[in-house]
Specification:
This protein is about 40% helix and about 15% strand. It is α/β, with parallel strands linked by helices. The protein has a single domain (about 5-220, about 255-305), classed as Divalent-metal-dependent TIM barrel enzymes (TIM Barrel, Alpha-Beta Barrel), CATH 3.20.20.150. The strands form two sheets. It has an eight-stranded parallel β-barrel, surrounded by four helices. Helix 5 (about 175-185) links the parallel strand 5 and strand 6.
């Protein structure tokens, strides 16, 4: 059966130990731990550092492993979601370097997956972005292969606001693009951190890809989305996407969760499934934030033994 956890970004202000304490006290098996470089965030839910790999010496590795063992919680993956295909080559190089540093860090900690974005330069065509991908990404996957670590690419288009117009900042948003990614880099270590919600608001089937890409699913996000049909009918799909949809807790949106979990069990997926909270309705206080994680847990728990 899958292992239920949550993404640590929603507890951004809490130190590593308190995040793990919360997981342990509330019967979560795992946490996807955010590992951004220490510094200012450029967007919501970014810039969160619960494991600082630039300070990850042997003592830190021992402390993290010991604390996880004490609390009976594991880290499902290390998460860092930048834009490796950005036109700013110096910035992109820094971000690629950080991804590459996360890979041996994950190996030291016994964590099988590093989750990230493919990236995209919004003003460039798909073909031009894939040309950059073919230049920049093979070195990342080579490092992953050397350390036997999987890379999970989240399928979020990163197109929500005007600064991400018109193409978004993550190329890996559709099955057509996944096919192209995996044709260019066929490595078994290269796969998906699958989030059904993004397919829903893009008017695509969120279930069938689970069957089609069963060997590429290295990690799973549990996030829902509500598509407001009245707004969509007014602005159309070419509008900035937040004009017609909102991220929601699992069970409060349009994802077909029974079919989703049926598909995961059918393909034999037994890896981590982590609740990702981005529901603004639950962000007015620390109590609301923690309640949102538990509400989501209570809803999806019907699909776990």
């Amino acid at each position: 059966m899958q292992q239920l956890g949550f993404v640590s970004a929603i507890l951004a202000e809490k130190p590593f130990e308190e995040v793990i304490d919360f997981a342990s006290e509330n019967k979560f098996a795992c946490v996807e731990m955010m590992c951004w470089p220490v510094g200012k965030a450029e967007r919501r839910y970014a810039g969160v550092t619960h494991v600082n790999i630039d300070e990850l010496d042997d003592n830190q590795v021992s402390h993290i492993k010991g604390y996880l063992n004490q609390k009976n919680v594991f880290i499902s993956g290390l998460g860092y979601y930048p834009n490796p295909l950005a036109a700013d080559e110096a910035k992109a190089a820094q971000e690629i370097d950080h991804i590459k540093k996360l890979i041996p860090a994950a190996a030291k900690l016994g964590i099988p997956v590093v989750n990230t974005f493919l990236g995209r330069e919004p003003s460039r065509s798909v073909d031009d972005n894939f040309a950059v991908f073919e230049e920049r990404f093979p070195e990342i996957i080579k490092v992953a292969e050397e350390h036997n670590i999987n890379i999970g690419i989240e399928n979020c288009p990163m197109f929500f606001t005007q600064d991400e117009w018109p193409g978004g900042k993550n190329l890996a948003y559709s099955p057509a693009h996944w096919d192209r990614m995996f044709d260019i880099i066929p490595s078994a270590n290269f796969g998906l951190n699958y989030d059904p919600s993004h397919l829903v608001w893009m008017q695509m089937d969120e279930i069938q890809p689970i069957y089609d890409y069963k060997d590429r699913i290295h990690h799973v996000h549990l996030k829902d989305v509500k598509v407001y049909r009245d707004k969509l009918n007014t602005v159309g799909v070419l509008a900035t996407p937040l004009e017609y949809h909102s991220p929601k807790l699992p069970g409060l949106g349009d994802v077909r969760w029974r079919d989703f979990f049926s598909a995961l069990t059918t393909i034999g997926y037994k890896g981590p499934t982590c609740i990702e909270v981005e529901d603004k309705a639950f962000e007015d206080s620390e109590e609301s934030i923690k309640s949102s994680i538990l509400l989501a847990r209570n809803y999806v728990s019907q699909f776990y033994v």
